[in-house]
Amino acid sequence: MRIRPTRNAATTGFRRIEPADIQHAQLRERASPEMQAAHTELFVATKGSEQVGLLSLDFPPVPQPLELYEVFVVSECRCQGIGAFLLEQAEMVGRRRGYQSIQLKPHPLDPEQRQEYLVEWYSRHGYSRSSSAPDFMSKML
Predict the structure, then answer these.
(1) Domain boundary assignment for the chain
(2) Residue 3 pLDDT > 50, yes or no?
(3) Beta bridge partners of 37
(4) Which residue among 11, 79, 93, 136 sits deepest, i.e. has the most Cβ atoms within 10 Å of its Cβ?
(5) Which fold has domain 7-140?
(6) Burial of 65 (0-12, 13-18, 19+ CB in 10 A)
(7) CA dist 12 to 7, 18, 62, 124, Å?
(8) Which residues contact 15 (CB under 8 A, 6 or more apart)?
(9) Residue pLDDT, tens place only, 105-130
(10) Cβ atoms within 10 Å, residue 79
(11) Model confidence at 70: pLDDT above 60
């Protein structure tokens, strides 16, 4: 599946990927089989031929929400809009597959990143805390 790049990542590509095809060591570590559920699909962001980000989505049966399991950008490519690009692509994939909403549980993958920063970052992208499950955030698609 190819999805067109968005405004903040004009040179970034996006495609579904199998774990065996992941080249970057940081991304390969994040894509290990024990990190995946039965309905998990992985997507990679690229800049040129370099793999720079990984998106992990769980696709439970609709009408359940799409589960955003992980957004990960390699350390040397952070703060360049790649995470926001991956988030936009996750939402686009969800809409195309008929999901009404997307949900996630913000948790830092980098020990130097604070939980509060992630919550703020997702909030800036339209996500809000769930009233029924306060550890989760969601957004209508």
Answers:
(1) 7-140
(2) no
(3) none
(4) 93
(5) Aminopeptidase (3.40.630)
(6) buried
(7) 10, 19, 29, 21
(8) 1, 2, 3, 43, 44, 46
(9) 998 877 777 889 999 999 999 999 98
(10) 7
(11) yes
What CA–CA distances, in Å, run from 28 to 4, 5, 85? Answer: 24, 23, 20
**Mean pLDDT over the full length of the chain:** 87
The answer to whether the CB of 51 falls within 8 A of the CB of 27 is yes
Instruction: Calculate the dihedral angle through the C-alpha atoms of 112, 93, 8, 29, rounding to the nearest 10 degrees.
Output: 30
User: According to the model, what pLDDT value does residue 11 have?
Assistant: 52
In DSSP notation, 86-117 reads: HHHHHHHHHHHTT-SEEEE----SSTTS-HHH
pLDDT confidence of residue 1: 41
Q: What is the 3-state secondary structure (H, E, C) of 15-36?
A: EEECHHHCCCHHHHHHCCHHHC
When comparing pLDDT for 33 and 21, which is higher?
21
